[in-house]
UniProtKB/TrEMBL annotation:
Annotated gene: rsgA
Regions of compositional bias (Basic residues) in chain numbering: 16-29
Protein name as annotated: Small ribosomal subunit biogenesis GTPase RsgA
Example GO BP: ribosomal small subunit biogenesis
Cofactor: Zn(2+)
GO molecular function: GTP binding; GTPase activity; metal ion binding; rRNA binding
Lineage of source species: Bacteria, Bacillati, Actinomycetota, Actinomycetes, Kitasatosporales
């Protein structure tokens, strides 16, 4: 509180200016109809690398977007300096609608979901057949995240020279998931990369897998080093390019029209955000049978109508077992 003496000057007294001297507030935001369109390639500490036409542009999010954040794969609208020259910075003023989202939570008790990738068509789940051993529950969780987010799954099995794929294929046979089997020798010679590339043409594919399964080796085989340098991350401070496995990175495929999004290795895949009613959409042969289910049915309880639907011969019992196995991954277990 300001105290005044006996002899105060009128100029010392602060008065609030009238309405005529202030700029009125407004909720109207500029439409930025002339903004350029781009695709987010990577995000690092508030700086986004965006592909605009054939130029790599560094950008930051406009304040008017509030808490809404852009992620790798997002289609965005930019204004400002779009030359892509060193020490220039554009501004992202709009994030366009997403066709799909790959989301995860830190664990199954975490209420806050994180969007990892946007607008991907396909999720390539990379798993080694040995060294390290396959983790079916993690694969199941990735499948649930794919079905929930609107991505088509692709199972990529590596290191087939160390163990055969038959046992793992039997576990996922009833899901009708496309798959590719690779070996270390094939990756070095390029044959395996060619077979994987055939599954990626014309699509945006996010790669996910835990450390040591050969995901980065496979991405390196799919995307030549010169293309990685031309589209990889540019440090906003030093201006030097670097690729880091701590953040997702979108890379253009060679020889085919498509994109690979390399994501960091995962130890767990929280599914707190997943609604069972969305996972059932990936099972069109079972979905009609849910009409008689009780409200908020988990599809794995005594009153679930799917049991009767399958008993009447409308679907294969193995498909119902697969659905329930996937939904069961939402329940955490020790060692998952």
């Amino acid at each position: 509180m300001r105290r005044y003496g006996k002899h105060t000057d009128e100029d010392d007294i602060r008065t609030r200016p009238g309405r005529r001297n202030t700029r009125p507030r407004t909720n109207i935001r500029p439409k930025h109809e002339d903004a350029a369109e781009g695709m987010v390639l990577t995000v690092d500490r508030g700086r986004l690398t965006v592909l605009v036409d054939d130029r790599i542009v560094m950008a930051m999010k406009a304040r008017e977007l509030g808490r809404k954040a852009a992620v790798v794969g997002d289609r965005v609208a930019l204004v400002g300096d779009l030359t892509g020259k060193k020490d220039t910075l554009a501004r992202i003023v709009r994030i366009e609608g997403r066709t799909s989202v790959l989301r995860r939570t830190a664990d199954d008790d975490d209420p806050f979901e994180r969007v990892v990738v946007a607008n991907a068509d396909q999720l390539a789940i990379v798993t080694a057949l040995a060294d390290p051993e396959p983790r079916p529950r993690l694969i199941d969780r990735c499948l649930v995240a794919a079905f929930d987010g609107g991505l088509e799954p692709l199972l990529v099995m590596t290191k087939s020279d160390l163990a055969p794929p038959a046992k793992l294929l039997e576990l996922y046979g009833d899901l009708d998931i496309p798959y590719v089997v690779t070996s270390r020798d094939e990756l070095e010679n390029g044959g395996a990369a060619d077979r994987v590339r055939e599954q990626l043409g014309g699509r945006v594919t996010a790669f996910v897998g835990h450390s040591g399964v050969g995901k980065t080796t496979l991405v390196n085989a799919l995307v030549p080093e010169e293309r990685r340098r031309s589209t990889g991350h540019v440090n906003a401070v030093t201006g030097r390019g670097r690729h880091t496995t701590t953040s997702a990175l979108a890379l253009p495929l060679a020889e085919v029209d498509g994109w690979v999004i390399d994501t960091p290795g995962v130890r767990s895949f929280g599914l707190a955000h997943v609604d069972p009613s969305r996972v059932i959409n990936a099972f069109p042969d079972l979905e009609p049978g849910t009409e008689g289910c009780p409200r908020a049915c988990s599809h794995d309880e005594p009153d679930c109508a799917l049991d009767e639907w399958v008993a009447q011969g409308h679907a294969d019992p193995a498909r119902l077992y697969s659905l329930r196995r996937l939904l069961a991954t939402r329940e955490p277990t020790e060692g998952d």
